[in-house]
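Long-time lurker, first post. I've been practising inverse folding by hand and with some scripts of my own, and I keep getting stuck on stretches where the structure tokens seem ambiguous. Below is the full token string for one chain I'm working on. Before anyone asks, I'm not after the true native sequence, just a reasonable design that respects the backbone. If someone could post their per-position residues I'd love to compare against what I wrote down in my notebook.
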């Protein structure tokens, strides 16, 4: 995936915005990533990615997924009962 691809579909937040936010703020708690345009407060799909970005924004990549694969996995997530949460 590229920096301009969406990570948070609910609020249309791109990877670039999230990575830059994390570099600037250096959140001590991953849940602070929600301060970036409410990312992670909708369906919860992006929370595992937000946690990884918060931990190390300079090393974050999702090379193994295309934007279409990412969207397809989110569709499956939305059909499931399990919902991601910040711990």
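-- Answer (accepted) --
I ran through it position by position. Result:
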């Amino acid at each position: 995936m590229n920096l301009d691809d969406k990570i948070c579909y609910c609020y249309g937040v791109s990877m670039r915005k999230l990575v830059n936010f994390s570099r600037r703020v250096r959140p001590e708690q991953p849940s602070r990533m929600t301060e970036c345009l409410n990312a992670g407060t909708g369906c919860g799909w992006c929370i595992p990615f937000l946690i990884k970005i918060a931990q190390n924004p300079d090393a974050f990549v999702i090379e193994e997924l295309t934007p279409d694969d990412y969207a397809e996995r989110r569709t499956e997530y939305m059909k499931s009962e399990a919902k991601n949460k910040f711990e």
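A couple of notes from the structure itself: Strands lie at 6-8, 13-14. The chain has a mean pLDDT of 95. Happy to go over any region you disagree with.
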